[in-house]
Amino acid sequence: MKFVLFGQKKNGLLPSEAAGLRSLLQARGDEVTDEISSDVDMVVSLGGDGTFLRAAEKVGATGIPIVGINTGHLGF
Fold first, then answer.
1. Choice among 30, 34, 41, 49 that is catalytic
2. How many other CB atoms are there within 10 angstroms of residue 18's CB atom?
3. 39 is catalytic
4. pTM score
5. Contact assessment for residue 40 and residue 72, using Cβ atoms and an 8 Å cutoff
6. What digits encode the pLDDT tens for the residues 14-66?
7. Which residues are CB-contacts of 50 (< 8 A; sequence separation ≥ 6)?
């Protein structure tokens, strides 16, 4: 499968949780990228509510599923 790790980047990097998830997926033989494209199987949103909403906005009506992993601190 091809996954996108989507999150709010600080200094060009995703949250530290992304490194572990990337390693786990790649160890399973999955492809991991940072760019949303039509050949992606799933988007993994790492962050809070706003990050998930931005991922949904980018994916739009493509039908690509989004999984959210809450690493936010505020929450609504």
1. 49
2. 21
3. no
4. 0.85
5. no
6. 667 788 899 999 999 999 998 889 899 999 998 888 889 999 999 988 999 99
7. 8, 72
